[in-house]
Design a protein that fits this description.
Elements: H1 14-25, E1 31-33, H2 36-41, E2 55-58, H3 62-72, E3 82-85, E4 100-103, E5 111-115, E6 120-124, H4 129-136, E7 141-142, H5 155-161, H6 168-171, E8 178-184, E9 190-193, H7 198-205, H8 210-224, H9 226-232, H10 257-261, E10 270-277, E11 279-280, E12 284-292, H11 295-300, H12 302-307, E13 312-317, H13 318-325, H14 330-333, E14 347-355, H15 358-374, E15 379-385, H16 388-399, H17 401-406, E16 413-414, E17 421-422, H18 428-441, E18 446-451, E19 456-463, H19 468-487, H20 505-509, H21 513-523, H22 551-555, H23 560-565, H24 567-570, H25 589-594, H26 601-617, H27 622-625, H28 634-642, H29 649-658, H30 665-669, H31 676-687, H32 695-712, H33 714-722, H34 724-733, H35 746-752, H36 760-764, H37 768-772, E20 774-778, H38 781-786, H39 788-800, E21 804-807, H40 815-820, H41 823-842, E22 846-849, H42 852-856, H43 861-866, E23 873-874, H44 876-882, E24 898-901, H45 904-909, H46 911-923, E25 928-930, H47 946-958, H48 961-964, E26 973-975, H49 978-988, H50 995-1013
Parallel strand pairs: 2-4, 3-4, 20-21, 20-22, 22-23, 24-25, 24-26
Antiparallel strand pairs: 1-2, 5-6, 6-10, 7-11, 8-9, 8-10, 12-14, 12-15, 13-14, 13-18, 16-19, 17-19, 18-19
Helix pairs in contact: 8-21, 18-19, 26-29, 26-31, 33-34, 39-50, 44-46
The protein binds flavin-adenine dinucleotide and iron/sulfur cluster (2 copies).
Flavin-adenine dinucleotide binds at residues 45-46, 83-91, 94-95, 104, 125, 147-149, 153-154, 156-158, 160-161, 163-165, 265-266, 270-271, 402, 495-497, 530, 575-576.
Amino acid sequence: MIPRLSRGSEARASAYREFLVELRVRGFEGELSSAEADRTVFATDNSIYQVLPQAIAFPRSEGDVARIAKLARDPRFESVVIAPHGGGTGTNGQSLTDGLVVDLSRHMNRILAVDPVGRSAWVEAGVVKDQLNDAIREHGLFFAPELSPSNRATLGGMIATDASGQGSVLYGKTRDHVLELKCVLLDGSPWHARPLTPDELETVKRRADRIGAVHREIDRIVNENAALIAERYPGLNRCVTGYDLVHVRDEEGRFRLESVICGAEGTLAFVTAAKVRLTPVPRHSALFNIRYASFDAALRDARTLMKLEAASSETLDATVLALARGDPIWPAVAPYFPDDPEGPAQGVNVVEFLAADADALQATIARVEAMLSSDAGSRRGYTIARDPAAIKAVWSMRKKSVGLLGNMAGERRPVPFVEDTVVPPEALADYIGEFRAALDRRCLVYGMFGHVDAGCLHVRPALDMKDPADERMVREITDEIVALTGKYKGVLWGEHGKGLRSEYAPEFFGPLYPRLQEIKAAFDPDNQLNPGKIAAPPGRSLSRLDQVPTRGQFDRRIPLAVRTANADSLHCNGNAACFNYDPDDAMCPSWKATRDRRHSPKGRASLMREWLRQLADLDVDPAARAPTASWRSFPRRAFNSMASHARDFSHEVKEAMDGCLACKSCTGQCPIKVDVPAFRSRFLEAYHGRYLRPWRDHLVARLEGALPLLARVGPISNAFTSSPVGRMALTALGLVKLPSLTPVNLRKALESRGIPEASLPALERLSADELRKSVVVVLDAFTTFYDAPVALAFFELIERLGFTPFVAPYRPNGKPQHVLGFLQAFVRTAEANAGVLRAFRKTGVELVGVDPSMTLTYRSEYVKALGERAPDVLLPQEWLARHVDELPRGEPVAKAPWVLLPHCTERTNAADAVGDWTRVAARLGMQLQIAHSGCCGMAGLYGHQRETREISERIYAQSWAKYAGSAGIRDRTLATGYSCRSQVRIMHGRKLAHPVEVLLERVKSLREQSRSTL
Ligand SMILES: Cc1cc2nc3c(=O)[nH]c(=O)nc-3n(C[C@H](O)[C@H](O)[C@H](O)COP(=O)(O)OP(=O)(O)OC[C@H]3O[C@@H](n4cnc5c(N)ncnc54)[C@H](O)[C@@H]3O)c2cc1C
Ligand code: SF4
Ligand code: SF4
């Protein structure tokens, strides 16, 4: 039995407790939390660091932000420090603090106004870049500054780090697109920063408050230090983030405070809203994908490529390319990166050209091809992508580079700390040669990719930060690379901001650094706003990179065996791909519905890591202590449960796990393969080794076994559950909106159609040819007892294709046990079921399931539990695709296409198989499109639990409602998941068809047609 975890990670300082109380008194309207779980989740970003905050505030408005800023200047709270927080995608600890985190992303994420004619938009700071672009696409406009995590980084964070990325040579950085800012200064004064004419500036400078002071100070510093500023700020595309003094005056001589706030990393003021410039979407584009024999050759070609006047030139090395080959994205991009006779390319440059019309683009392509062929240089060859889908796929591969590298095998994993250096592009190849030598000397593995046109390469050396020797290399390598960038007249912090690497600023800026300190002091005299970063007020120091706690230092306290058994949570590197804002993407419904970071894959992985660490500090391995919640331990567990109000960190972890739908989107989509359902089950098993389970868990875990009995009295059972007494019983169990058992007795229906139950002797009696034309359908409990017509349609379809179907003897699959964390019971169920199915499969007959979620259990949870003993069961569309030639060929039908909403688990864990539905339908002449949809919100039990029903409906409303609920679309909408179809029935009182049902109808009608033709 695991012990109670009551110590807490760290004592909470009383100043912060009082600060939160006082904030409420002053009318703060957002949420405030000092719960250990929230603090743990906000302790990391994508960097190597882990800094535990004291509390988190989630303001709802500028007024809330002003309340925080004003209170911080109260003499009682001078020890309180604050860091603004956006998407949390920083790579260098920018938003980490041991004080108060102010998260502007949860509530302040509205697009306030769009002016398509004036090409601008006002947005709150928490708006995500892709969210803005999706909203303005209809106007043919976009927000141009690019960055890889565009689906989760906020405008506030982009402004604060002056973000940029692919295309920066053409479009510039975020600062170039900020027109005006609404800010809150540390004394709580709101300020609308916009370009000021000289007269307006003089008026503002005369103000006696902090606003007057900061304008006076910056104006003085810029006027007195023009030569020093020109000397110290390098003339590079990526310049230097943080207190940008170069652009304080624009071309019209206007004063722009917003230029200094852009890139200040939240050390000067809060940004609450921004007016940003919108750019017309380029209508025509083409990508040249150029292959080289070495990465060095690709880099050395940069100078020539720059002469081509491309919109952007990006480079990828052989390591990234090799990893991309194993990624689901590869089939879409492979035609553009063919192998040469010498083998695969060792480096590629992807060069994009834009044009206003097709003729102009054709002319550009001709010009570029002429230039490339006049001097082939070291190029092996190139392809051109013009199809928008192909271009999007190639850029997606490039955007995935960090994720691809992060998924390297082994304990040494790529980490960011020298990942965004910039040198003049013409010096890039020589510089990278020396950079590589520094890493090779230390026998480190690394991948490289980046913006060859801007001289910015992303390099993440693979280190095991749990190993103190590797950790020391962070300092050694950073020092060496800082010197190297100096040699090549470049910078360490070219793209991702300074963050906890700011200690190199004094040397870099030399005599200008004291002026930066004066700017900091004018805004924040007592160093309370994100201290230690960019610049410290005079007399205060910057943080040092080896004096900040790292994640590795926490993780190394967990014993190796425990770490190995929990790699599916411990390897989360915080790249934040799971905070994807897109409601029509499967990843991660519980986060999207709650915007609560505890309820995200990263949140749950962080809590699991911390839980394991706290147990390790008590010398406890949960796997060794957890299991058997036996009757003998019942009294102790009952006692623990009665005393469950006592503080225990495990309760906070449990709350986060309870919010998970076990939809497995993280398992399929997290680039690092963080697998929440897997570690959630282990956690639940351990947790309930100490605390009693609700009765509902026991009932649900046994439901698959009990359904055959219940089905015998189906009408009685249905009548009972819909009676007042039944409803009261269900309410007592915390269950709502349960489906009715199907009136169809599937067994009898199959018998009457002569479809036999599979048995080993019967299969062994078949000849090889007969086996080839036979298939065993492995039915799950839910299709069998709640949705029999779908199963019957599938059997009929199989027969009409000329195959002999068998039905596998009914056995529980065990998925509900796995989801609830009855892991020992699950293994027993899986062993029993797998034994029979494997024996069938050994005869050579194919096995096929119907429900995607239940069927995919065989290739995931079964494989983890049983290894090679897991049976090989196909999804229905996989089986149909294998036998597509048996389907009648149909002429294309000129009807509106069918729209398929796949189950999340299928979409994210068997992505290729989803496309099989389209291929199979096309054979029959049917158009079937895969909807860009998120999660239905049902996911097995989740949508039937009283405590999660409301969130389940919120999830449904975010994406599915617009398909399944819209007249016109809904009649041609299909769904593969039993749970999903149940959810639609509950929400709209109507049944969506399963694709096998419409395929069957089409096969029947084609056969009819051919008969009548004959
Ligand atoms: C996989 C990956 C790839 C990346 N690629 C790129 C890239 O291509 N280009 C690039 O530029 N960056 C890149 N980054 C870095 C990061 O995404 C950017 O720095 C981004 O702009 C941070 O935005 P955010 O909303 O996540 O901010 P956060 O990480 O939450 O915060 C970043 C900084 O902004 C401050 N801040 C946030 N909101 C506010 C506000 N409202 N007011 C004042 N200060 C605020 C914070 O205090 C912090 O100092 C990458 C990161 C990852 C993980
Ligand atoms: S769970 Fe996966 S996607 Fe989310 S932050 Fe961790 S590694 Fe990234
Ligand atoms: S299983 Fe689904 S709900 Fe749970 S963490 Fe993963 S993506 Fe989120």
